[in-house]
Amino acid sequence: MSYARQMLDTYPADIAVDKAQLATAIDALTACSQACTACADACLSESGEAMPHLARCIRDDLDCADVCDTTARVLSRHTGYDAALTRAQVQAALQAAKSCADSCGEHAEMHEHCRICAQACTEVVEALTALLDHLQPSGDAPSTPSQTAPQVS
Amino acid sequence: MSYARQMLDTYPADIAVDKAQLATAIDALTACSQACTACADACLSESGEAMPHLARCIRDDLDCADVCDTTARVLSRHTGYDAALTRAQVQAALQAAKSCADSCGEHAEMHEHCRICAQACTEVVEALTALLDHLQPSGDAPSTPSQTAPQVS
Amino acid sequence: MSYARQMLDTYPADIAVDKAQLATAIDALTACSQACTACADACLSESGEAMPHLARCIRDDLDCADVCDTTARVLSRHTGYDAALTRAQVQAALQAAKSCADSCGEHAEMHEHCRICAQACTEVVEALTALLDHLQPSGDAPSTPSQTAPQVS
Amino acid sequence: MSYARQMLDTYPADIAVDKAQLATAIDALTACSQACTACADACLSESGEAMPHLARCIRDDLDCADVCDTTARVLSRHTGYDAALTRAQVQAALQAAKSCADSCGEHAEMHEHCRICAQACTEVVEALTALLDHLQPSGDAPSTPSQTAPQVS
After folding, report:
1. What pLDDT was estimated at residue B31?
2. Do D63 and A73 touch (CB under 8 A)?
3. Could you tell me the fold of the domain covering B17-137?
């Protein structure tokens, strides 16, 4: 149902990153953000005894949903994939997804929604780790923003 | 790749709306938001002659991306589907998707990314129109918010 | 600290809505979104006994934060203030802010963060009610999106 | 009009970061996100001759708006300010604000909205640079997420 790959294939300028890998990352981020929003809400519907133990899980869900949403948007704009921003935002999403996978993973046996959410987070970690290897190190990034932007003809 | 349906199936409380229809709506909104973000960026990579004619298309893409994102989140929280908020937010998304489908549709023959984006918007219109029929009319909604919220046991 | 008014004053095209009223609405939405995000997190830091009673409040905070964020963005784009989208999104924000003001209001005496958040929501309701009176009724809106968009010279 | 400081003062658990500095950062991020959204829209209302030269500026505005929004939310949740996520997300926002300040700065003499937006970005850079000095280095962060979260009594 996602259009990420089709949108990459019809982009009217060059994209410096492998399109299959990029589409996989965008789709994983989008799916994870939705799963985290739903998992936080499911935690709030657990019993009054269980819920207080889920406070950290809910927080990590909310952080992860917001960070994944923004990272999917940054990756959907081809501002220049060697840019320091892309690397920094991908690294933030890696942290958010790892923390949330841990939090939800602790409850995976008791709550099915946490198990599924932890899986969605793990897929983000895998997709972003693969992508990060192919993003130009920030040390080698062009020093002025102008050089990283697509040129207007 | 989406987990919307699995998250609905593992929700620990009752959901008053058809789950298949709800998952379809959430997935359509999520896919459309990504397509709109990518389409706005693709429009900005078109030639200097074409771009000024795409200003309205870019704006409608940006509005539609934001409104679809928020609507997907509201629908991913099962705050009580008879609530006036759900209906109002779904109606806003319907307007955003219709406007964006029109704007992108005008450029569909010239720009493939606009054609795909218009299709993503049309799927949102279809999914939300189907969903709206099954959401309780706001006139019949419980008058106090407390009655629409899942109960904590 | 907000730049909403300055950005309106330097906008290079006509804006059909009173700028003071529009800036007040944008600022109220932005402040409310932040207060709701912080209130949801504060609720999650309350004692294990209090937290389960705050589940609806947390949900309404999260919905209201997302809806206010998106509404502030739609109002920050001057796509044509007679447009059906603007009215629909403003109406969704009115619903979200009313529900959240009610939920947080119920806990205002016990939790200071709920009292402040309810106040932020009430300011949104007031600002959007005032704004809505000056937005063209959707019945009179131009029928094609093209007519509502600023023209490119 | 912001409630960031009041929400910090009424938070029911300890916050490990200077509250004045944190409130300043949250307010700067919120104001910057709004200015960037408005600046992108203002660029799209410039003449057909000027607009193509503003493509990079619009992109940087859109990235900066999204990244600042999410960073304001992460900082509004007190998930544990020594956490690796907070540092990583703050660093991404620093990059986004620096790039956008550069892009808008190039057009500051021609477009007042770019001048104001560059100022909003510069305030984010200053506020986050000050905050980052007081966030625990990730190398010293507790190794398990559980230790960084507020305890439920």
Report:
1. 98
2. yes
3. Substrate Binding Domain Of Dnak; Chain:A; Domain 2 (1.20.1270)
> Which ipTM value was assigned to this complex?
0.89
What CA–CA distance (Å, rounded) separates C93 from D149? 32
Number of inter-chain CB pairs under 8 A, A vs D: 105
End-to-end CA distance of chain A: 33
Query: What pLDDT is stored for residue A134 in this prediction?
Result: 84
With a cut of 60, say whether residue A143 has pLDDT above it.
no
Q: Which residues contact A141 (CB under 8 A, 6 or more apart)?
A: A82, A83, A84, A87, A148
Neighboring chain D residues of C120 at a CB cutoff of 8 Å: 3
The reply to whether CATH 1.10.287.80 applies to domain C18-138 is no
Domain D18-137 = CATH 3.40.50.10320: no
Tally of CB atoms within 10 A around C21? 14
Count how many Cα atoms sit within 13 Å of the Cα of residue A94 in the half-sphere of its side chain: 18
C60, B145 Cβ separation under 8 angstroms: yes
Q: What are C103-125's pLDDT values in tens digits? A: 999 999 999 999 999 999 999 99
pLDDT value at A127 more than 90: yes
Cβ within 8 Å, pair A79-D60: yes
Residues A54 and D131: their CA atoms lie apart, in Å, by 29
**Tokens encoding C127:** 């600002």
Residue of D nearest to A143 (CA): D99
Strand (E) or helix (H) holding A123: helix A112-134
In whole angstroms, what is the distance from residue C102 CA to residue C97 CA? Answer: 9
pLDDT in tens, A61-119: 999 999 999 999 999 998 765 589 999 999 999 999 999 999 999 999 999 999 999 99
* Cβ atoms C87, C132 nearer than 8 A: yes
Q: How far is CA B59 from the centre of its chain?
A: 16
D137: exposed, middle or buried (C-beta count within 10 Å: 0-12, 13-18, 19+)?
A: exposed
Cα–Cα distance, C82 to C16 (Å, whole number): 8
Is the Cβ–Cβ distance between B79 and C60 less than 8 Å?
A: yes
Chain D contact probe: residue of B33, B56, B60, B62 with most D CBs at under 10 A: B62
DSSP A51: G
Asked if the Cβ–Cβ distance from B1 to A28 is below 8 Å, we say yes
% chain B with pLDDT above 90: 78
Per-residue pLDDT, B81 = 53
* Distance (Å) of CA C138 to CA B105, C28, C143: 22, 24, 9
- Check CB contact under 8 Å for B31 and A1: yes
Domain ranges of chain C: 18-138
Q: What is the pLDDT of residue D148?
A: 36
Closest-CA distance of chain C to residue D47, Å: 6
The pair of three-digit structure tokens given for residue D54, joined into one six-digit string: 């503003």
- Three-state DSSP class for residue B34: helix
pLDDT tens track, chain C, 153 positions: 799 999 999 999 999 889 999 999 999 999 999 999 999 999 999 999 999 999 999 999 999 999 999 999 999 998 765 588 999 999 999 999 999 999 999 999 999 999 999 999 999 999 999 999 888 665 444 434 333 344 333
